[in-house]
Design a protein that fits this description.
By secondary structure, the chain is an alpha/beta fold. The chain is built from three helices and 24 strands. Helices cover 16% and strands 29% of the residues.
């Protein structure tokens, strides 16, 4: 029996759990600070708080942080690493991940996502449903590539950045850390750290 603990009983958490089932995890348990008033997340049980999660993480074959906020997810993952927990990476069988790509611990790759040859993905990244990350892209820790987003070849995305649903990024573009790329944006030039860009072509939000 493979036992997985998930922190964060959210809608995102449901997709993480569903992906875990598809990957062969047989027992999936949630922890969330809404417990004990909340005891389930869809068909999966919620059995304790976030504090309980960290105290019991070593009892599971793997742990995942299913929190959409990139900075919070990164912080929780760092604590788990300090405690020696086993960070599970989940790659849905309906995703395509090249054998020549690298996927960091604690990363989730949902159905329909494509990760091509030479791409490097950091720790705790979310490659959401139907996104594509082309050859030789480099994604820092705790990045989120949203559903349907497209990264052309050689794109670099700094840690904790978020590429919104349906956005696209031209080849060889550098996106700094803590950037937000708005839904449907078309990024055709480099984006500095901490910026929010929107539109076609993408421009800084004022």
């Amino acid at each position: 029996m493979k036992r997985l603990a998930i922190l964060g009983a959210s809608g995102h958490g449901k997709v993480v759990a569903d992906t875990a089932e598809a990957c062969g995890w047989t027992e999936i348990i949630f922890f969330d600070d809404t417990w004990p008033s909340r005891t389930s997340n869809g068909v999966w049980g919620v059995v304790g708080t976030g504090k309980d999660f960290f105290e019991k993480a070593h009892e599971f074959d793997g742990v995942v942080v299913a929190i959409g906020n990139n900075a919070i997810r990164q912080s929780k993952l760092a604590t788990l690493v300090q405690k020696g927990a086993t960070l599970a990476s989940l790659i849905h069988p309906a995703a395509y991940v090249s054998r020549y790509a690298t996927v960091g611990a604690g990363t989730v790759v949902f159905a329909g996502a494509v990760l091509n040859a030479g791409a490097t993905v950091g720790v705790g990244v979310i490659l959401n449903t139907g996104c594509s990350v082309d050859h030789d892209c480099i994604l820092g820790d705790s990045v989120h590539i949203s559903p349907g987003a497209r990264l052309a070849g050689g794109v670099s995305v700094g840690q904790c950045s978020w590429v919104g649903i349906g956005a696209c990024v031209k080849q060889m573009i550098n996106i700094g850390a803590n950037v937000v790329v708005g839904a449907g944006a078309a990024v055709v030039s480099d984006v500095d750290e901490g910026m929010t860009v929107v539109g076609v072509p993408a421009r800084a939000l004022e």
